[in-house]
C-alpha cells in the first residue's frame, strides 16, 4: 500500500514544495507579526478612530475564511490591473489573515500586564512611549510568545491554501506527484509526513512554552 | 463593479444554494466531531492503558496536518483503498476527523484544568473514579470548554470553504463560478460571501460571549485591575 519509490523518485518535487511551504510560513509569520503589532497598538490607542479601525479589522478577518482572503488578493487585484501569482497572493493572504489573530494575542498580552506597572513607570517620569518600550512591552512579550507559537503552527498548516492557487507549496507538488504516479495514497501520506516534520516540533515547542508560562505565573 | 448584474436573481439563488451546502456540511461535521471529540477527549483524560495512547497518537497526528490534505486524501486516496465517498461525505469525513481532534484536545485540557484539590476531596469522600468524573470533573470541565468549542465551530464553518478543492458546491465554489461569468461581478459576490460568513460567525461569537458572561457571573470578582489602556478596553470590547 505504501510505495516508497513514490517518495524517492519524486524527492525533488517534495523538497521544492517543502521549501516553498517553509518560505510562505516564515514570510507569513514575519508579515503578520508586524501587521498584528500595529493593529494591536491601534486597538489600545486612546484615539477612538484608530480603536474602531483596529476592532473592525480584527473582527472582519477573524470571521471569514482564509480562502476568501486569498481570493481577494488573487482575483481582486486584477480589477486594478495587478495579477498576483499563487505564491504571492497566498502568502499575502496568510499574512493579513493571521495578523488579526496575532493582534488579538498581543493586545491580550499587553492588557494582562498589571496597570500598576504603567502607573509606576509614569510616576517615575517615563513618557507613555518610554513606559511601553522599557516596562510594558518586555513583560507582554513573555506572555504573548505561547499564543504566537500556536499561530505559527496554524500558519504552517494554513500555508496549504497555496495548493488551491498553484502556489508551488507542498500541496501543489503533492498534486503534481499524484498526477505522475496515480498512487494517491502514497503521495499524500508522504506529503503528510513532510508537514508533520514541520508541525510536530512546533506543537511540542508550543506545549513547552505554555507549560513554562503556567509555571512562571 | 457590476452589482446589478452580479445580484441577478439567478446568481443570488446560486450563491445562497452554496451557502446552504456550506451550512449543511458544517452542521453534520459539528455534530459528528463533537461526539467523537468529547469521547476521545475523555478517553485521553482518563488515561486508560493502551486505548488512551492510541487515541492520543491519532489525535496528535490529525491535529497537526492541514485540513486541505485530509480533504484531498478522503476524496482521492481513500477510493484507492477501496473506500469510495461522495464529495459531501468525503468533506464531512475530513472535517469531522480534523475538528474532532481539535475538540478532543479542548476537552482533555478542560478536564485537566479542574483543580486537583476538588478531585482529591471527592475521592476522599468515598466517590469512585467514575462518580467523580460524572459529578465533579465533567460538570466543571464542560462549562470551561464552551468558549473554545464555539470558537472551534466558527473555525469549522470557515474551513468548509476548503472543500472547494474537490469541487464541493459550497459557498466559495459558487462564488468562483459567478465571478467566472464576468470579472466585474467579483467584488459584489465576494462581498456577499464575506457578509454571510461574517453574520454566522460573529453571531456565534456573540453567543459564546453571552455564555461566558453567564459562567463568569458565578465567580467572585478578583479585584485586579486591567492593564494599560484599561479605559479603552471597554470601548474596544463593545
Structural class of chain A: mainly alpha
Q: Order of SSEs of chain A, N→C?
A: HHHHHHHHH
Mean pLDDT of chain B: 84
Largest sheet of chain B: none
For this structure, what is the CATH class of chain B?
Mainly Alpha
Q: Report the end-to-end length of chain B measured between terminal Cα atoms.
A: 33 Å
Give start-end ranges of low-pLDDT stretches of chain B: 223-227, 229-238
Would you identify the CATH architecture of chain B?
Orthogonal Bundle
Note the total helix count of chain A: 9
CATH topology of chain A: MetI-like fold
Helix proportion of residues of chain A, in percent? Answer: over 70%
Please give the CATH architecture of chain A: Orthogonal Bundle
Write the layout of secondary structure elements.
The complex is a heterodimer of chains A (217) and B (238).
Chain A: H1 4-9, H2 11-43, H3 48-62, H4 66-76, H5 86-111, H6 115-123, H7 128-158, H8 170-181, H9 184-216
Helix pairs in contact in A: 2-3, 2-5, 2-7, 2-8, 3-5, 4-5, 5-7, 6-7, 7-9, 8-9
Chain B: H1 3-6, H2 9-46, H3 51-63, H4 67-77, H5 87-112, H6 116-124, H7 129-159, H8 171-181, H9 186-216, H10 230-237
Helix pairs in contact in B: 2-3, 2-5, 2-8, 3-5, 4-5, 5-7, 6-7, 7-9, 8-9
Brief write-up:
The complex is a heterodimer of chains A (217) and B (238). With 217 residues, chain A is mainly α.
Description:
The complex is a heterodimer of chains A (217) and B (238). Chain A is mainly alpha-helical. Chain A has helices at 4-9, 11-43, 48-62, 66-76, 86-111, 115-123, 128-158, 170-181, 184-216. Chain A has a single domain, classed as MetI-like fold (Orthogonal Bundle), CATH 1.10.3720. Chain A has nine helices and no strands. Chain A starts with a helix and ends with a helix. The mean pLDDT of chain A is 88. Residues 223-227 and 229-238 of chain B have low confidence and may be disordered. By secondary structure, chain B is mostly helical. In chain B, helix 2 (9-46) runs antiparallel to helix 8, helix 5 packs across helix 7 (129-159) and helix 8 packs antiparallel against helix 9. Chain B has helices at residues 3-6, 9-46, 51-63, 67-77, 87-112, 116-124, 129-159, 171-181, 186-216, 230-237. At the A-B interface, helix 3, helix 4, helix 5, helix 6 and helix 7 of A face helix 3, helix 4, helix 7, helix 8 and helix 9 of B.
Amino acid at each position: 500500500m505504501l510505495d516508497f519509490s513514490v517518495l524517492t523518485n519524486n524527492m525533488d518535487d517534495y523538497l521544492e514544495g517543502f521549501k516553498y511551504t517553509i518560505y510562505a510560513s516564515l514570510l507569513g509569520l514575519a508579515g503578520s507579526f508586524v501587521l498584528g503589532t500595529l493593529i494591536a497598538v491601534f486597538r489600545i490607542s486612546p484615539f477612538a478612530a484608530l480603536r474602531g479601525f483596529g476592532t473592525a479589522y480584527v473582527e472582519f478577518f477573524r470571521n471569514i475564511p482564509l480562502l476568501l482572503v486569498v481570493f481577494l488578493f488573487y482575483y481582486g487585484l486584477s480589477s486594478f490591473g495587478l495579477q498576483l501569482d499563487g505564491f504571492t497572493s497566498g502568502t499575502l493572504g496568510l499574512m493579513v489573515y493571521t495578523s488579526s489573530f496575532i493582534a488579538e494575542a498581543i493586545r491580550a498580552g499587553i492588557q494582562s500586564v498589571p496597570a500598576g506597572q504603567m502607573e509606576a513607570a509614569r510616576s517615575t517620569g517615563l513618557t507613555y512611549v518610554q513606559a511601553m518600550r522599557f516596562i510594558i512591552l518586555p513583560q507582554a512579550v513573555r506572555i504573548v510568545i505561547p499564543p504566537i507559537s500556536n499561530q505559527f503552527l496554524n500558519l504552517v498548516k494554513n500555508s496549504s491554501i497555496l495548493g488551491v492557487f498553484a502556489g508551488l507549496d507542498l500541496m501543489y507538488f503533492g498534486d503534481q506527484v499524484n498526477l505522475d504516479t496515480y498512487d494517491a495514497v502514497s503521495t499524500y501520506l508522504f506529503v503528510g509526513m513532510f508537514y508533520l516534520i514541520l508541525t510536530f516540533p512546533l506543537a511540542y515547542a508550543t506545549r513547552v512554552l505554555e507549560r513554562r508560562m503556567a509555571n512562571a505565573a | 463593479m457590476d452589482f446589478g448584474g452580479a445580484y441577478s436573481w439567478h446568481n443570488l439563488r446560486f450563491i445562497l444554494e452554496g451557502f446552504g451546502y456550506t451550512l449543511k456540511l458544517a452542521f453534520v461535521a459539528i455534530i459528528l466531531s463533537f461526539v467523537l471529540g468529547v469521547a476521545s477527549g475523555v478517553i485521553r483524560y482518563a488515561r486508560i492503558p493502551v486505548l488512551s495512547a492510541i487515541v492520543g497518537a491519532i489525535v496528535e497526528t490529525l491535529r497537526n496536518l492541514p485540513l486541505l490534505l485530509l480533504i484531498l486524501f478522503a476524496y482521492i486516496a481513500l477510493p484507492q483503498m477501496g473506500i469510495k465517498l461522495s464529495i459531501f461525505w468525503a468533506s464531512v469525513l475530513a472535517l469531522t476527523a480534523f475538528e474532532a481532534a481539535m475538540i478532543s484536545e479542548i476537552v482533555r485540557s478542560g478536564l485537566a484544568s479542574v483543580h486537583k484539590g476538588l478531585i482529591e476531596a471527592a475521592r476522599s469522600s468515598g466517590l469512585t473514579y467514575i462518580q467523580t468524573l460524572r459529578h465533579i470533573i465533567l460538570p466543571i470541565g464542560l462549562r470551561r470548554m464552551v468558549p473554545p468549542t464555539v470558537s472551534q465551530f466558527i473555525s469549522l464553518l470557515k474551513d468548509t470553504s476548503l472543500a472547494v478543492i474537490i469541487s464541493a458546491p459550497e459557498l466559495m465554489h459558487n462564488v468562483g463560478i459567478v465571478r467566472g461569468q464576468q470579472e466585474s461581478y467579483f467584488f459584489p459576490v465576494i462581498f456577499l460571501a464575506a457578509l454571510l460568513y461574517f453574520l454566522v460567525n460573529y453571531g456565534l461569537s456573540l453567543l459564546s460571549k453571552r455564555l461566558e458572561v453567564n459562567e463568569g457571573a458565578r465567580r467572585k470578582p478578583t479585584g485586579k485591575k486591567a492593564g494599560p489602556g484599561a479605559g479603552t478596553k471597554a470601548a474596544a470590547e463593545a
